[in-house]
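Bug #77: duplicate submission created two jobs. Keeping one. Sequence:
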Amino acid sequence: MQKRKLRIIRDFDDATEIFAKWSPSEIFRKIFHSSVMEALSLLRKNKEINVLEVGCGHGTWFEPISKLDFSKKIEYVGIDFSEKRIGAAKKLFKKNKNAKFFVADYLEFSSSKKYDLIFFIEVFQYADKKDFAKFFKKTKGMLKRDGYAVIIDKDKYSAHSLKVSLGKLFKKLPYYYRHVIYPSFSSLEKLAKAYGLKPVKRSKVKEFNAIVMKN
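Kept job's structure:
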């Protein structure tokens, strides 16, 4: 597991410039808005909204959050285990005082505060399946009462997953795809319930799946 994690970090560090030029597709943005942004809108009456993004990369998804009309009361923390990608995020959002970026592994990350929203975008595809339960246990403990958790990824039992598997087999994909193993959303939903997180919304836009859970 540790060797796989180190290989992922190395590949992500190497691909920092590639990812910095990347922009989410329209359908990717659509599922983000219907899950993460929708959860944020339900929290807008809070005096302060504490948000944690796990696997934030260079901060792609903080940008739309920073443009919300209530963004001034959002305290955002983004973590990623790629030092170079966190460096890129810090540089990109250095003028934004409401955003903090840290190099960290989620399962080892500690915080004195609890969060209103924790979200994971294309994180579980890189996580070890044996650690999934630890992710949910950790998330349950880090969420405030009535807080939300959101997972966006592609499903294991999908045409896209098959396409990626074949691409890896015939070496037709970029090197940073070699670690991708998509999760089963049915299994994720069962784990959520097992650890006391209530699934409140499940959605799908083309190849993207999202599950919104409430503490």
